[in-house]
Amino acid sequence: MASNTYTWNDAATGTLPSPAESLAGRDLCSIADFSTAEIAATLKLAHDVKQSPQDYRWALDAKQMVMFFEKASLRTRLTFETAINTLGGSAIFVDQTQSPLGERESLADMSRNLERWVNVIVLRTYAHETITEMASYAACPVINALSDLEHPCQALADFLTVEQKFGTAKGLHFSYVGDGNNVCHSLMLTAAQLGAHMVVGSPKNYAPKADIIAQARAIANHTGGSIEIVSDPVAAVEGADAVYTDVCTSMGMEHEVTKRAPIFKPYQVNEQLMAHAASHAIFMHCLPAHRNAEVTDAVLDGPQSAVFEQAENRMHAQKALLLLLLGGSKQAASK
Fold first, then answer.
1. Which of 110, 237, 268, 311 has a CA between 20 and 30 Å from the CA of residue 140?
2. Burial, 15: exposed, middle or buried (Cβ in 10 Å; 0-12, 13-18, 19+)?
3. Residue 204 lies in a domain
4. Which residues contact 68 (CB under 8 A, 6 or more apart)?
5. Which residues belong to the active site?
6. How many domains does the chain have?
């Protein structure tokens, strides 16, 4: 399905649809598919859904969601299933861990079948092109639940958590330490859209992709945010409001564990590194964590940790996303 996307200043003219109207029927392949106004609207709805879940109990009555996962999952699968089930819809899970999408049947043929049976397709894949190709064929919304390039649903939940803690992401110092991976890419793009100042601290040769950096900086130029890439982990977290890390070796890269371990050791988030952040700083991680590898137990289980709030917020953010893409509303839920 062709995605109608708008620029980050789309709301300024007042001539375009409201975010809720503009998102109906759309895909989410990249977080950059959404404008600043659309991300803000998604987060605003997520706050409301979390506060008053009963108001949306039947908002997606009889809607069907299918999930194809090439990678193992705990949070992504269960939060999507719980999200649509508690909105009145149903989830169908298809395990693709032993058979990559497109191997048995072309993505075009799959898409043309699926769009006749379900209302939304959720994909967790290796190749990002699998998601964009299916989105180009399917007439129903396609959601990226993780690819090797991005993890947009995680970023929505993470900035929902940031807004809960600080009221707004605009102007905040958001620090990411570790591998410049798919999670980092979506965080950069979302931080830029929301006007945050993000600093990424990564080892040489493990920084985020140059084109994603350029894209995030172009967005930040319009929102008042900033994106900085450094190699010193202390410089990355100095004065930070939030310190984020992820595993050093993502799924599919397990063969590099031995090689990466010594390279990323100086980037471990421990009490000494957290001491360089602001005293009110929170610690964030998308989970699962390799305890005492990229983060110590003292930080992960400590008073600054927000990791389990992030995990909970996956469900609320994804509820809001499903409501907007499928046209659900509080009004519909009350009928």
1. 311
2. exposed
3. yes
4. 94, 96, 101, 121, 122, 123, 124, 125
5. 124, 151, 154, 246, 286, 314
6. 2
Does the model's pTM come out above 0.90? yes
Do the domain assignments include residue 309? no
Q: Are residues 224 and 135 in the same domain?
A: no
pLDDT in tens, the chain (335 residues): 544 443 434 444 455 678 878 999 999 999 999 999 999 999 999 999 999 999 999 999 999 999 999 999 999 999 999 999 999 999 999 999 999 999 999 999 999 999 999 999 999 999 999 999 999 999 999 999 999 999 999 999 999 999 999 999 999 999 999 999 999 999 999 999 999 999 999 999 999 999 999 999 999 999 999 999 999 999 999 999 999 999 998 666 677 878 899 999 999 999 999 999 999 999 999 999 999 999 999 999 999 999 999 999 999 999 999 999 999 877 555 55
**Rounded distance between C-alpha atoms, residue 101 and residue 114, angstroms:** 13
